[in-house]
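S.,

Sequence below, as promised.
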Amino acid sequence: MLTRYLRALCTYAHTRNPGQKAGFTLIEALITVSMLALFTALMMPSLHRVNPALNLEQRANALRSLIKQARTLAIAHDKRVFLCGAAPDAETSMDIDSPCDLAGSWQHGVLVVIDQDGDQEPSTGDVVTLYQSADSRESVLSWRGFRGKSRVEFLPNGMTYWQNGRFTLCAVGDKTLRRDVIINAAGRSYISRDNAGGC
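The prediction came back faster than expected:
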C-alpha cells in the first residue's frame, strides 16, 4: 500500500506541470513523512514481540535510567535512597510495613524510596518517589550483590553503601538472551551485553 502511494506520488510529481522541474512540494513531503512515522509507530508493538532482544535491551536501559535517578535523588535530597523490589501489594495497599519486598523479589516492579524518617530501612514513613512496573511476561529480573542485601542503598554522597553487584534480566522462553546492569561501589552503572553465561 505504501509503495503504491509513493509510486502514485512520484508519477503525479512528474506529470502535473510538464514545463517545470520535477519535484515534491513541502506539503507532499510532510504528508509522506507523517505517513511513514504513523506506520512505524503502528509496527513498534509487533516488533517487540518478534524481537525479544530489543525488548530486553529497552528494559535494561530503563533500569539503568532508574538507577541513575535514584543516585541523583540521594544527592539532591541529602538522604539515603533505596532501590528495591516492590512488595506484592505495594500498588494496591498503603497499609503495609515496608514498600519493599522483604523476600528480595523483584518480580512486582522496582521502587525508588527516599529514607524520609532516617531509620536506614525502607518503612511506611518513607516516600516512594519512582516506580517501574515489572514485565514478567517478557523478562525476569534478579539482583545479586556484595554484602548479600536484597536492595541497593545510595548514600547522600551518591555512592552505594559498600555495595557493588549486578541486576540480571533474562528473557522468558529464551535462556540465551541476557542483559546485566552492573553497579559499582561509586553508584555508577553500565550495561553488559555478554551473554556467555546465559540465564
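The mean pLDDT is 82.

Coffee later?
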